[in-house]
Amino acid sequence: MTVHPNDPLLPEAKMHIALPGAPVVARIVSSESCIRGKSASFVRHIGIDLSGTPLEGTFLAGQSFGVIVPRIDSKGRPHKVRLYSIASPSYGEDGFGRVISTTCKRTIEEIPDENDPKRSDGHPLILGVCSNWLCDQSVGSDILVSGPNGKRFVLPTNPSDHDYIFMATGTGIAPFRGMIHELLVGPPAGSPAHAKWKGLCQSKIHLVMGVPYRTDLLYDSWLRDLASTHPNFTYHTVISREPLPQLGHGPHTHHYLDARLDFFGTLLESKRTLIYACGLAGMQVGIFKTLAIAGFGAQYLTVHEEIAAIAPSHWTTEQIKRRVRPTHRCMLEVY
Ligand SMILES: Cc1cc2nc3c(=O)[nH]c(=O)nc-3n(C[C@H](O)[C@H](O)[C@H](O)COP(=O)(O)OP(=O)(O)OC[C@H]3O[C@@H](n4cnc5c(N)ncnc54)[C@H](O)[C@@H]3O)c2cc1C
What we know:
Number of domains: 2
Strand order of the largest sheet: 4-3-8-1-2-5
Distance between the termini: 22 Å
Low-confidence stretches: none
Radius of gyration: 20 Å
CATH architecture of the largest domain: 3-Layer(aba) Sandwich
CATH class of the largest domain: Alpha Beta
Mean pLDDT: 94
Number of strands: 15
CATH topology of the largest domain: Rossmann fold
Number of helices: 10
Oligomer: single chain
CATH superfamily of the largest domain: Nucleotide-binding domain of ferredoxin-NADP reductase (FNR) module
Structural class: alpha/beta
Bound molecules: flavin-adenine dinucleotide
Helix content: 10-25%
């Protein structure tokens, strides 16, 4: 990938200190619902103590870690590792880098499989293995953890050199909770991280959070409080299954960006701005198309020559997935 003068300088992220085959034993220290209201989803903010393990102090906000369920799968093999973004800042929940956290959503689905005689009802309930196991664990339980994973979805070395548009769907909020904590709250007084902290970030920070229903919003009151006390931080919510006055029915995060280009345009034009998007696989398709149609493709996207002559409004989902890549000013984490 070509490096441009406005690309961010990123810190060296430590990776794969504990591999899934040789995980560390960590301990659950907190587990609480972080959903705004009564909802069909169940999402928990889970704190994990890494004290005394080689993973202590190694994570940067935005990285993820692995969880290995200590059971055997239906084929008699150990369960494969599942990744979870850390929701904590780089200095951890405690300022010592010992306690990381995540935002774990229970995977609960009805999946029709008429060919399976054991599922003759045609709509068997599927409970995701790891997310439900992790959410079931009580405070004090031991869990097997690997990581850190990922090196690009992190804040720049000098956060004040940039402004930020964070776009999240669902649990994609996890890395932004950590990053926003780092930018706007800071480590607890008296902690080792506090002594090294560069102070509150004065950059413009916009969080665009997309969920199906208002009750599904995560860390909502914390984010609202931060927005009301930090004029440089704006918290935008986009509710896809409830109509919004300006946007009509079914808006997703990219519709919001598009409908408010009068507002985001100057920010997107600025050489300081970085875009981070995290959440549902496919969310990048709408974001990339919106950016390209609005004329911001050159800063944030690399378009393969095969579709360079096609107007962005005619790009298909498949073309975007295969032929459009984010530049260093656009960080993407989708799953
Ligand atoms: C980089 C990264 C970061 C992530 N961060 C987070 C995060 O912060 N928070 C979070 O909640 N998740 C996160 N995830 C997703 C997480 O890793 C898991 O994929 C998720 O929790 C589901 O895992 P599970 O074991 O519960 O579900 P699984 O058991 O793996 O099931 C997953 C899906 O497989 C299908 N399936 C499973 N069993 C069957 C069956 N018997 N028949 C038919 N279909 C079936 C279903 O569609 C089901 O939803 C992240 C993923 C990545 C890659």
